[in-house]
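Review form for a predicted model. The reviewer records the input and the model, then writes brief findings.
Reviewer: anonymous (R2)
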Amino acid sequence: MAVQPTTTREMYGRKIKINFFEKQHRYSHDGDRKWIISVTGATGMIDKSRVLMKWASNLTKDYLTSSITLIKKAKSDIELQSIFDHACNQHTIKKEEAGDTGTQVHEWCEKYIKTKPSDRKDIELPEDENVLNGVTAFLSWVKSNKVKFIESEKMVYSKKHDYVGLLDLKAKVNGKLTLVDFKTSKRVYPEYFLQACGYVLADEEESGDKYDEVSILHFNKEDGEFEEHKMSEQDEPLNDYKLNCKVFLACLSLKQWSKSTSKWG
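Model under review:
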């Protein structure tokens, strides 16, 4: 039995239908099971192997260091192998934990945004400390600005470039139409700026709206603080909106080329 899409969105005057399969976190045109390149799929072409390898090796080292007592007390090779296997798997464990926390923060924020203002006080706060810190950072940002929510978790698609994505928030922030991309990672990475540009280009193409600002909003899961990065025409590369748009489209082209040549191995 064919897997059914979680949601389907009609776009461009109902001329285009995009299916979203939540479990796989993939998209396809309605009636076509060929996956559409996503915004994050395009920016995934950026090589992060050096950073990730160092991060993974440090996690393994830290785990083994903290397990010295267990290693000394191990009574068999099987016990030692279990400790070493767990150490080598730390990067997967941490990634899944961080992903789950980020998902919960996003879901809480989406619920808050889509709830009537008069009913928001009844939304229960998360019990998990890291999730609560992320939510606290979000609420602090809302309180620090005049925010009028327009759309949350909106599926966007570029007919011109054939890619799809899910933007976090479209809102009027202090009177300016703003694309806000939520991030709960350890730090803000350069590709986040490219992803935000991808969402903007697709939404502007379909809706005809023109964004005044593009913002990367980082929620710190450790101290409940928020950090905001806005893009504009500046000399600093990460803040240069036009440059970031060009780089995003370059990443998309590379991803499309990679897909088209995958049969060659």
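Findings: The chain is about 45% helix and 25% strand.
Further findings: Residues 90-114 form the longest helix (25 residues).
Recommendation: see findings above.
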